[in-house]
Amino acid sequence: MNPLLVILLAPALAALALFAVPESRTRWVRGISVVGTGIALAAALWLFVAYPSAPHPDLAPEQWRAGDHAYKYVVATDWVPSIGLSFKLGVDGIGVVLVLLTAFTIFTGVIVSFGIRDRAKEYYISLLALVTGVFGVFMSLDLFFYYFFYEIAVIPMFLLIGIWGSTTRTVDKRYATMKLVLLLSTGAVLALVGLIATYATAGTFDMVALERHEFSRSFQLLWFPFVFLGFASLVPMWPFHSWSPAGHAAAPAAVSMLHAGVLMKLGAYGVLRIACTYFPDAAATYLPWVGLLCCMNIVYGGLVAVSQRDMKLIIGYSSSSHMGYVLLGIASMTALGVQGAVFLMFAHGLMTALAFSLIGWFYDQTHTRMVDDLGGLMKVMPFVGVCFVIASMASAGLPGFANFVSELTVIVGAWESPMLARWHKIPAILAVWGLVITGVYLLRAVKDIWFGEISPRWANLVDARKPVERLPFVILVGALVFFGFFPQTILRVSKDGADQLVRRVAGDLGPSADASPDRAASAEAGPPAEEGR
Amino acid sequence: MDLRLDLLLPEFVVAGAALGAIVTELLLRAGRRARPTALTAALGLAVALVLLLVQQPEGTAMLVRAVADDASSPMVTGWRSDAFSVFMRALAAAGGLLVVLLAVPYTRRMDRGHGEFHALLLFAVLGVMLVAGVQDLLSLFVCLELVTINSFVLAAFKRNDLRSTEAGLKYLVIGALSTAILLLGIAFVYGATGAVSFAQIGLAVGGAPNALLVLGLVLVLVGMLFKLGAVPFHVWIPDVYQGAPSPVVAFLSTGSKAAGVILLVRFGHAVLMPSVAAPGGVPWVWLLGAIALITLLFGTLGAISQRSIKRLFAYSSIGHAGYLLMGITAMVAVRDGAGPDPVPATTAILFYLLAFFFTNLTAFAVIVLVSGLSGRHEGSSYAGLARRSPLVGLALLLALLSLAGVPPLSGFFGKFLVLAALVGKDLYGLAIVGALGVVVSLYFYLLWIREIFVSPPADGAPALRPGPWSTAVLAVGIVAMVGMGIFMGPFHTWAHDAARSLVALP
Questions:
Q1: Could you tell me if the ipTM is greater than 0.95?
Q2: Tens-place pLDDT, residues B488-499
Q3: A370 pairs with which residues across the strands?
Q4: DSSP assignment of A25-42, as one string?
Q5: Given Cys at both, which of A184, A340, A420, B342 links B331, Cβ 3.0 to 4.6 Å?
């Protein structure tokens, strides 16, 4: 059976099966969710390993040239023939990486959510519906179903945050969840109008055919902003980012994990797969400006994070700061930058998922996330504390973690980008300074929460002891370290999709394209300058 | 042209069932009438539905025998049974069937009038079914009045209830006004062209511009927009929806609205499209587009502040009328450098209506269950509905999301098709407003969803146990919303065939 179908259907069928389970059987509910997402994770891992050597099914061997872009594991069936709508799945390297990230995040997210006892059945149904949508977006090769799954991924957030979220001093969940859904939907419907215009002009929903379709320049200049802003508001690009930190802060742990780990990547994926690929001329015109805007993400997001005292808001703003690097990599439109962006999506997704799951662990017990209320927690929960320090170090860009490699790749890409040349390397320099800012707020948070004097009221907190409690943290830390030491495993997979895009938009792959995986890999050996704080 | 009564067999069945409901009531003792009358009515509609789906009769029959029946006379009028009319009649019958079933909790509590209630409802449904085939202004008037007059009585059915009486009276006064306008329009059109059949009027509008004819057409259009509930002809909707019994509102918001849509589609194809194509033609696209835009904005923005669920549905139904009118606009519009191509837009309208029927009726099934018995319509009586009954909560959740236009529910594909039809005719402005309207409507639907799922049930609110009939309606509604939202292919094809049958008209 096609691995993509397995990945898509496993959580969907699990959600359906949950409808049949009685509400009181919480163990069954958890079991079915673990099995469903576990199957998806296994299939995603298999896909990741098998992808580079898989044949290209939609091209005959004589048509296929080395480095050519093609989707693999394609499965297609007519859906609404009268308007040319078909249900078509397929992945390229970028899709494979993001599918793997999603599978990691949801599997660990399901386990982290074991603490949820209130209305667990509805919770897991919403969670699985959400992740089905996410998988669908990363694997759809039909524009209609791309949007279809995209919306499915947004709406369950409303229930997940609204019911199981928390209202704290900093954020009202009623406000946060409504803002999140409405802003994301606004972006989505604006993108939808652009997508329909694309369909009306090209006459097909088939994303492979659309990639090869040449749209007129005026058409591209008109519709690129709709599609780009629609997706970029989910990234979230400054100044459309304000839904995101509030949403993080109000959401339960697993939802924050999915939200930062995966949902934001839907936006970046849409920018890559739709906006830049279909409208390359417009992308070449507009992307340099995006390169400036995303510096606001990096610097402004970072500075706001510095002034936050709620741990989830810190990570929330830091996410919006880090997604600025992803946008920067895309805006650089060099092979290095785009591959770095894809890799950073992966690394950042793992890192935030880890951070939010750890915050969830102590928040469940302390019922406060305010940095000032906490302190010295390392004494009572050393395992969680160490994992948290690891997550912070990864986020701050310490060598040995996937984040370091990817951020470095993005910065090098931005430095060498011909597209950003008009800004005289300023974006790249600001991006380096962004890493310093990241270090400031994360190290301070680590110090204030985990070290120092412990308040007596935290003396009875419990560490993660059982294997099942530690499993999600172990998986995420392991993945961060593994892909930090072996970045070429990711870069090898994502290369075809990234190269094809860059060739389409920028004309050539930019400087140092051929050396990209090796350079990024070897860079990890040497100590980088910006770590010497 | 013959009097081919075989084409009208489903309609005869419905009329028979309506009379049967009255007879059933006469034969039974008071207190035992609720179920048999409902069963008679449901059976009649079910048979009519099956007949329509199985037979799919095609042909033209004479419905209104006017002054002369000589073929050359302009007064000869016909009634068509084509794929479009079969689609709409089946939809009307299915909708009527669901209304009868979802009304069971309501009708069981009535102490008298079971026969009348079902008979009036069936006659109104019959009117909608007949409207589906009209080919001329005279039968249009007669069929439309069949819907309208029965609706007046139904709206005032709770005659001891002040609000219901008020609703009936308001509806009657405003409805009579719209009828008068429609008649005046028909008179003008006949005066200008000497014709009542759509085809002949269509030929006449292609000629030189004629102020009397245009005035007449505008007035006829106004009569149709009244039925649809488009701004500025919407004023009756909120008060009537609020006061009339919930099952009646369920019919008004679906069947009665469908009558307006049917007429706009038929009239649009036969008259407005030739008029748009004619040199120096009337700017129908601008007119309809402006009304669609205002209707959409008024309905969606007005719904935000509603605290009563029936008023919410009143405003949201105005908003949906806006989307349907956008579809009509796209249907009539001509893309630069291309011929008239109404099929995508008509398909969109039909699919939208199909999705809207099942979605809205599911929602009203819930309203009858929750509010119909208690008489309380404000948000707090819906608090924690998902805890009181998971099935009812799920049904209302899906219905609200489908109305907002969220995948994987049927309402999404309907909205998608309408937007695609607009973009296909280069009406980008309308498409963008329509898309943003989705966000606004999402806001107020989500406010209610929060009430249903997040808020705890009010103290002492009992668990809700829907009866077998209501459960069946909810199940059908859920299956229809999700089924048409995911496996939209066959339904789209059906709507597509129906839309194409209109273009094949002589």
A1: no
A2: 999 999 999 999
A3: A310
A4: -HHHHHHHHHHHHHHHHH
A5: B342
